[in-house]
Amino acid sequence: MRRIAILAFLLALVSLEGCVSRPDSPALFVGMSAERLKARFGEPIRVERAPSGGEDWYYSFTSWRNADVEASGYTDATSHSVSVSAVISDDGNTQEQPVHISPDGYVIAPLPSGKIVPR
Question: Residue 77 region, left (φ>0) first, then alpha (ψ -120 to 50), else beta?
Fold first, then answer.
């Protein structure tokens, strides 16, 4: 039973890695003002007018790959062992995505996935 608890704990730690915010990458959120967006992430790569009357501000976003996790267990008449390995990579995909700005100057949904790459 203890093996299962240890394995579950380690897998939970690995899965939480994606939830950790990095101080150099503050989160983008719905309702953020355009001024705050620009102050946090810099000038957009480009700006396009949206049919709604707002604008689409394009930034580079990166999305992180999921961790590769392997687990194994061994039991015989005299011993028990559990092994877990996790590989977490900083390699990600970077692509331009629009941040939608309302006519009133606030970020609106849908938000792009990933994190903005600071300029």
Answer: alpha
Token pair recorded at residue 101: 């700005």
pTM to 2 decimals? 0.58
Q: Over the stretch 48-106, which tens digit does the pLDDT of each residue have?
A: 999 989 999 999 998 766 666 677 777 777 877 777 776 665 556 788 999 999 999 99
**Domain boundaries of the chain, sorted by first residue:** 2-116
8 A C-beta contact, residue 112 and residue 61: yes
User: In DSSP terms, which residues pair with 60 in a beta bridge?
Assistant: 96
Residue at token pair 């015989």: 76
- CB neighbours of 40 closer than 8 A, spacing ≥ 6? 26
By CB atoms closer than 10 A (0-12, 13-18, 19+), residue 89 is: exposed
Largest CA distance in the chain: 72
- Cβ(82)–Cβ(7) under 8 Å? yes
- According to DSSP, the β-strands at 46-49 and 115-116 are unpaired
